[in-house]
Amino acid sequence: MNLSKQSEFRGVRHYRLVFSLLLALLIVCDAAGQVRRRIEISRFVQPSSRVGSAVAGRFFARAFRFAGGVVPRGSAVFINPEGRRLSARQLELVILDKAKLSNNRPDYDAIGIRWNSKIYQLAAEDDLIYSLMKFIQRGSYIAFTIPVFDFDENYFRQNALLDDGAGGYIAKEFLTPSHIRLLHEIDLDTETEEMLPKEKAGIMRAINRGSGQLSEIGTYVNADFHIAYQVFLANANGKNVIDVGGLPLRYSWSVRRSGTVVIDEVEVFTFPEEEFSLQDRAVLFFQTAAILRQFSRDNPREFNRFLREVGTVEGRR
Questions:
Q1: Of the candidates 71, 76, 27, which has an alpha carbon nearest to the alpha carbon of residue 222?
Q2: What integer is the mean pLDDT of 140-150?
Q3: Which among 3, 9, 221, 280 counts the fewest CB atoms within 10 Å?
């Protein structure tokens, strides 16, 4: 979103903070206590990844003009308890609690992954699962944006970006009050910090091309083009759980007068210290999207089967 636009939304931060605190008090689930795994940034940031660079390249060639918001496009690497990599083709997505999945509230213990006859609980905001999967299936980039550099009615229509009534545009799959609020907050109210110079330089080098005079417009997008989340199938306190390592990024960019983009800065989301806080929910949003997207890429049959099952449970079909 445009840096100058941030001030327009600060007046509602108090309301958002109160809402977030109340929501946290209402969340009761077995996922509490699960650890968000800290891993070295060099293990999940992949500036030289051909897939990540290709996805980022397509985005910054055109869609960047309309996107100052939330763009989940990361990938995931699955790792078994012995530390060996798994393919999504070896895994199944499972519903652990149909009642929680269908209650239209954000529970965090209703979804799991099965491997080798064992089920590992995934901490994911379950009321987002169906919407995320439909969004991924459609293949769009932008989940939420406040367009400040450019607006193209045809692009927005083709990519199903709808006026959310709160100053932004949101993908049609997330057009509910709770999802609108969450995506606004992910864009405007999450915290980031500096990256290590090596990883940051690699990302900027992979995107920036050429030179030229810059315009005065600067903005950022919250995305994870160059992130491969590490998805650990683990056992914590006698319980099979999924611990995910990796954090999304914030790409700050400007536009040259020639119309091409240049990345000015890349920061990483601050590691969430409080379970189910806004920062934690933001990280979970990106991580869950990456996990589901990896299934869509590598195990589309399972992805589509699970999408139908979730839709049936939620009464979407």
A1: 71
A2: 90
A3: 3
